Automatic annotation (TrEMBL):
Pathway: tRNA modification; N(7)-methylguanine-tRNA biosynthesis. Belongs to the class I-like SAM-binding methyltransferase superfamily. TrmB family. This is tRNA (guanine-N(7)-)-methyltransferase. Keywords: Methyltransferase, S-adenosyl-L-methionine, Transferase, tRNA processing. One of its GO terms (molecular function) is tRNA (guanine(46)-N7)-methyltransferase activity.
């Protein structure tokens, strides 16, 4: 995925907030090359990542949340299918994946207003994971679990086909420069992968505050044959998605925000 900028710890801002680069849904390798040389001396295709691992420093409260809440709410990455009932301690709740939750404020809000759904958040940025763990403890929440790993590998290996009721991708890094557009998370192969993990009738909800990326999202999602748009183009913001402080500031300055909600065909 891509790397958002990272917001202040009290706000679930879009990932590309230049003030504090903390909102990182998955992003990319430092090199732009398409191949890498393996130990056998042979060049192999390099997988382009949409995220950058940030070395941000966790606060003491976030570190305590790792120690006290991590054993209960962190799910280790494995190459095997996730046992949802065992992870969430209930068998039949709707299953929602969120990719790149930043500092977790939005995730915590949605989980609170939708207590009957189970939310699996995937994020590589350690302070963000610690911040969401802290929110889980203070809210408190029982319907959130976290995997700190590359989301593409999580989707490929831990989430079987037709296992999800919904997917959220909010404010992924737009990778503004044209030469970096290949790093954008929402490319046709990954959208097809996400669609394959949705149950019939399941939804994919994306949001961005970068118009050119919104236009690309609309094109890519619209071209996926197993998905259908729930709106003529962009959707009204669903009530469950909160408007963040960063988003409110942008709206006051006349910046746009675009939501896209597609459903898996039956």
């Amino acid at each position: 995925m891509t790397n958002h900028g990272h917001p202040p710890a009290d706000d679930a801002q879009p990932a590309h907030d230049d003030a504090a680069d903390l909102d990182a849904p998955q992003t990319s390798d430092a090199q732009d090359g398409d191949t890498q040389v393996g130990p056998d001396g042979v060049a192999h295709p390099r997988r382009i990542r949409s995220f950058v691992r940030r070395a941000g420093r966790s606060s003491e409260a976030q570190k305590r949340a790792f120690d006290t809440l991590g054993p209960q709410f962190l799910v280790p990455y494995t190459p095997d299918a996730l046992d949802w009932p065992a992870a969430f301690h209930r068998p039949n709740a709707p299953r929602i994946l969120e990719i790149g939750f930043g500092m977790g404020d939005g995730t915590a809000h949605i989980a609170k207003v939708r207590p009957d759904d189970d939310f699996l958040g995937v994020e590589v940025h350690e302070p963000g994971v610690g911040a969401l763990l802290k929110l889980i403890g203070t809210t408190p929440l029982s319907n959130v679990r976290i995997i700190q790993h590359d989301a593409v590998e999580v989707v490929e290996n831990m989430l079987p086909e037709a296992s999800l009721d919904g997917v959220h991708v909010f404010f992924p890094d737009p990778w503004h420069k044209k030469r970096h557009h290949k790093r954008r998370l929402l490319q046709p192969p990954f959208v097809a992968l996400l669609a394959s993990r949705l149950k019939p009738g399941g939804y994919l909800h994306c949001a961005t505050d970068w118009q050119e990326y919104a236009e690309q999202m609309l094109e890519v999602l619209g071209a996926e044959p197993t998905l259908e748009n729930t709106a003529a183009d962009y959707a009204p913001r669903p009530d469950y998605r909160p408007v963040t402080k960063f988003e409110n500031r942008g709206l006051r300055l006349g910046h746009g925000v675009w939501d896209l909600v597609f459903k898996k065909r039956g």
